[in-house]
Automatic annotation (TrEMBL):
Primary gene name: ccoN
Topology relative to the membrane: Multi-pass membrane protein
Record protein name field: cytochrome-c oxidase
Organism, scientific name: Adhaeribacter terrigena
TM spans (from-to): 37-59, 79-101, 113-136, 148-166, 178-197, 223-245, 257-274, 294-314, 326-342, 362-386, 398-420, 454-476, 519-540
Cofactor(s) demanded: Cu(2+); heme b
UniProt catalytic activity: 4 Fe(II)-[cytochrome c] + O2 + 8 H(+)(in) = 4 Fe(III)-[cytochrome c] + 2 H2O + 4 H(+)(out)
Pathway participation: Energy metabolism; oxidative phosphorylation
Length: 730
């Protein structure tokens, strides 16, 4: 029985239940920070998608590269991925977390100041990516291209986010943490671990660094990071938001509490092991590849557990799906999550991976997740959230429905042509004709077959982007018709110490839910096990990376040429990993060995073949072929979709940092002779003059200090260090 206290303070209601005092406290949710992240989500989403459309058409028509070094596919493709992942989805995460966390914990965010620092710090990080990536400042590591000063800024702002989140959890008024909060905690902890481990790099200059790992180890760490960036940035925070916003939009409770427990713990434990499935048939040790496959196949169970929990939450509410655009977006988002998480384990099977890897099939797979799961859930949350914080109704359901259908058609027009292109590539690459000869020995034949698919993909992107612009208009008109409820009043009882007479839920998991730091520790243990088991043996047991005596460090000119290759983003279209398939060894040469990459910082194995593999390109063609190919690709490969690189012939190679680069490599154990750094540029010019003289014999006059000379030196070195059967163990 509730007994009122005489003359309570304004906004406070007290009472006694058994031995516990109940006091309702008035507090205010911060909607201003939610509004800010919402606008940032929309702005960066449109920007990232627009760049994506440009990138799509660049592959269909090289003229769309605009003949400018700052707008080539190699430089802006990572800008597109960073803008979509960290700007659009990142701001979407923070929008959803800042809105739901306050309400789930019955508390305002821990610090308004930290919220503002987080918001503006994150926008500045994105802006720095917009500036640096087109300028060619890149580590070349997928989803982690930003250079070391920006990596430090990301770390600091991520700590601010965690500080604010855990501070809010500590001062919560709700004893039990809801499942969405579990996913937010796991997201913060795992992304922190992933970023710090993968970003271990040695600075050379202000915007240049070398990876702290080399070759096989670098590849393992990168795809442990890359796969789990998808897991813990594109998936777990969105699952947390699904568990909050989908029940709210449907006005139904989550289908199963027990299923959510199984979903959470099994997902975060299993996901972390799956990274090596990106490296099947490569030089990674077989045992690590097999671990990646096993855990990837297991991953379908928790992933589909989450999808089922989401869809069954709508039981009894499917009539609303027909009427409410918010629920339409959310249903398709959860379905796309289910499709992508079925396809992921399937692609990790070796026999499927042998066909799909390096093809556009992978591009289709990624975009079903990004456009469907992340994009549509973000749109659904925006349509649900904006009217509430602006105290009004959605401006137009008709426009929201138009956005839904345009977006859905956009996904179909994007994904289906890319699947078709991927199947075409995979099968043509492996096709043998009569007499056991490769039927399509010229790689360009496979490229020309899929150009129409690239145009269709671009059309799909335009449809999806058009829907997003409709959303911008709809959300803007909605906000304009209302007024922001910056500080939303709420009431809740304070979190009191548990007493003997207090009712306890008998479920064992409640013990963990009541203790946020206990949950954080167990979640950290769960995500560390897989990474440690895969990485520690690869680093400490020499037999995992057999060395090859003939493999030597790059010369100073080759090292500078390699850095130009990285700067221009060549790894976005060309792999340097010949797998042990007959179709690949006949097309490219001897398959790649682990010991060949011991001085590669970063590794450049690539993840997509828009052009042929280059690992054995060295000495295959004369210098003049590479010279003409970079000046006008169609002169050497008629019909090529590769852009020209005229600036490499005009710009002088910057050699001021050569000694610093050599010293950085020496600090990581690369065996350059003592004192080589001081005479590195002398050695560089000697080799450059040799290449210039060779080109002169072929009627091509080029000064030795031009960038093209260094790039030719690097390309001519690739894959020339070994002869068949020359491999030996330490």
């Amino acid at each position: 029985m509730l007994t009122e206290v005489s003359n309570p303070k304004p906004g406070v209601l007290s009472g006694k239940i058994g031995d516990r005092i109940n006091t309702l406290e008035t507090f205010y949710y911060d909607n201003k920070i939610v509004r800010n992240f919402a606008w940032a989500t929309i702005f960066w989403g449109l920007a990232g998608m627009l760049i994506g459309v440009i990138v799509a058409f660049q592959l269909a028509n090289p003229d769309v590269n605009m003949g400018n070094q700052y707008t080539t596919f190699g430089r802006i493709r990572p800008l597109h991925t960073n803008a979509v992942i960290f700007a659009f989805v990142g701001n979407g995460i923070f929008m959803g977390v800042y809105y739901s966390l306050q309400r789930l914990l019955k508390a305002r965010m821990f610090s308004d100041v930290l919220s503002k620092i987080h918001f503006w710090g994150w926008q500045l990080i994105i802006l720095s990516a917009v500036i640096t990536l087109p300028l060619g400042y890149t580590t070349s590591k997928e989803y982690a291209e930003l250079e070391w000063p920006i990596d430090i800024a990301i770390t600091l702002i991520w700590v601010v986010f965690g500080w604010n989140m855990f501070g809010t959890i500590v001062k919560r008024r709700e004893r039990h943490m809801y499942v969405g909060v579990w996913f937010y905690i796991a997201t913060f902890l795992t992304v922190a671990v992933l970023h710090i481990v993968n970003s271990y790099e040695i600075p050379v200059t202000f915007m240049k660094s070398y990876s702290g790992y080399a070759g096989v180890q670098d590849a393992l760490v990168q795809w442990w990071y890359g796969h789990n960036a998808v897991a813990f940035f594109l998936t777990t925070p969105y699952l947390g938001m699904m568990y909050y916003f989908l029940p709210k939009a449907a006005n139904r409770p989550v289908y199963s509490y027990r299923l959510s427990i199984i979903h959470f713990w099994s997902l975060i434990f299993i996901y972390i092991w799956a990274g090596p499935h990106h490296l099947l048939y490569t030089s990674l040790p077989d045992w690590a590849q097999s671990l990646g496959v096993v855990f990837s196949v297991m991953l379908i169970a928790p992933s589909w557990g989450g999808m089922i929990n989401g869809l069954l939450t709508l039981r009894g509410a499917w009539d609303k799906v027909r009427e409410e655009p918010v629920l339409k977006f959310m249903v398709v988002a959860v379905t796309a999550y289910g499709m992508a998480t079925f396809e992921g384990p399937m692609l990790s099977l070796k026999n499927v991976n042998a066909i799909a890897h390096f093809t556009d099939w992978i591009v289709a797979h990624v975009h079903v997740g990004a456009l469907g799961w992340n994009g549509f859930l973000t749109f659904g949350i925006l349509y649900w959230l904006v009217p509430r914080i602006f105290q009004t109704n959605l401006y137009s359901k008709k426009l929201a429905n138009a956005h839904f259908w345009l977006g859905t058609l956009g996904i179909i027009f994007y994904a289906v042509p890319m699947y078709w292109a991927g199947f075409t590539q995979g099968l043509m690459w492996k096709q043998f004709g009569e007499g056991g000869v490769l039927q399509y020995a010229n790689f360009l034949e496979t490229v020309l077959q899929i150009v129409p698919m690239y145009y269709l993909r671009g059309i799909g992107g335009i449809l999806y982007l058009s829907g997003a612009f409709i959303m911008l208009y709809n959300v803007y008109k909605t906000a304009k018709s209302g007024s922001l409820l910056a500080n939303e009043e709420a009431e809740a009882a304070p979190l009191m110490p548990a007493t003997v007479g207090q009712h306890h839920d008998s479920h064992w998991h409640r013990i963990i839910e009541r203790k946020p730091f206990r949950m954080a520790i167990w979640a950290t243990v769960a995500i560390l096990i897989g990474g440690l088991v895969e990485m520690v043996p690869t680093f400490l047991i020499d037999s995992n990376v057999p060395t090859i005596a003939s493999v030597k460090p790059y010369t100073s000119l080759e090292l500078q040429g390699r850095d130009l290759y990285i700067k221009e983003g060549c790894v976005n279209c060309h792999t340097q990993m010949i797998r042990p398939f007959r179709s690949e060894t006949e097309r490219y040469g001897e398959y790649s060995k682990a010991g060949e990459f011991v001085y590669d910082r970063p590794f450049l194995w690539g993840s997509k073949r828009t052009g042929p593999d280059l690992h054995r390109i060295g000495q295959k063609y004369p210098h003049s072929w590479h010279y003409n190919h970079m000046l006008d690709p169609t002169s050497m490969s008629p019909g090529s979709i590769m852009p020209a690189y005229p600036w490499l012939f005009e710009q002088d190679l910057d050699i001021e940092d050569t000694p610093a680069k050599i010293r950085a490599m020496q600090s990581m154990g690369v065996p350059y002779p003592e004192g080589y750094a001081e005479k590195a540029n002398e050695d560089l010019m000697k080799q450059a003059k040799g290449i210039s003289a060779d080109l002169a014999k072929e009627g091509i006059e080029v000064k030795p200090e031009k960038e093209i000379v260094a790039l030719i030196a690097y390309l001519q070195r690739l894959g020339t260090d070994i002869k068949v059967k020359e491999e030996q163990k330490r």
